[in-house]
Hints:
By secondary structure, this protein is an alpha/beta fold.
Amino acid sequence: xxxxxxxxxxxxxxxVETVVKQPGAAEKSKNAPxxxxxxxxxxxxxxxxxxxxxxxxxxxxxxxRKKITAVIGPxxxxxxxLLRGINRMNELIGGVRTQGNVLLEGxxxxxxxxxxxxxxxxxxxxxxxxxxxxxxxxxxILFGARVNGYQADEDELVEASLRGAxxxxxxxxxxxxxxxxxxxxxxxxxxxxxxxAVSPEVxxxxxxxxxxxxxxxxxxxxxxxxxxxxxxxxxxxHNMQQAARVSxxxxxxxxxxxxxxxxxxxxxxxxLFTNPTDERTxxxxxxxxx
Length: 290
C-alpha cells in the first residue's frame, strides 16, 4: 500500500545540492543489478560527495518489496552512506551533494518539492548503537507518532508496536520505566518498535546487532524475518554469517583506486554466496580481504 504524498506543502528545506538525472541515463555497467519486478525502492546512478570526497559512485540497484536485502563490503566502501542516502539522512551533515535518483514508489525523494520529513517517516531507520530516548518505554513508542499527529488509541499503538518488535511480553507490566533501563538487546528492539510505530514502508538497519551479544543478535535476526512480512528491510552488516542467515538478496560494495563506493554485485543471497559472478565478491566472502 502506498503512503501519503511525499510532496512538501510547507517551505522547502534546502540542505543538499542535488543533480537529478533520468534513471538509466548513464551507461549500464557489466555488473548491472538483477531485475526486480516490483521494487519498493529504486536507486539509479546515485553518487554522493562529502565536500570534495566522493563516497558513493554511480550505484544502481532495486530493492525488492517485503524482502530483506543485506549490503556487505569492507569498512569505508560506502555501505552506510548509501543506506543514509535512501532516506535523506546524509543531508543533516553539511557539505553533502548528491547526483542521481532514489525512488520510493516511483517518486524521486530528492526532487525539490519532496518533504524530507515525510521521506524519513516512510523510510525508518535503526542505528548501530541502540539509542532510546531518556524517557519511559511508552513515551519512546509514542514520540514519533505524536510528532506525526497520531490521533487514535495510544495504548493500542504502544502494544501493537511492542508486539511487532517482540518486546511486549517482557515490558508490558512496567511501561513507565525508562527505556535506558533495558538491556542492550531490549533497547534495540525498543528502537525498532519506535520506528514501526509511525507505519513506515521501509526499514533501514545500519549494523543493528554489532553492539549486541550473540543471544540478543539471534533475537534481532528472528525479529527481522518476522518484520519482513510487513516491511521492506535493507540491512548493512559486516557479518557474513548474518547476511547469509537473514537476507533474501545481497549487495556487495567495494572501493578501489579508481572509485569509492561502487556496487560490485547484487543478487539472491544463495546465489551470491555460493556462486558469485565477480572474483572480488568471492575473495571478500571467503575472507581473503576485508
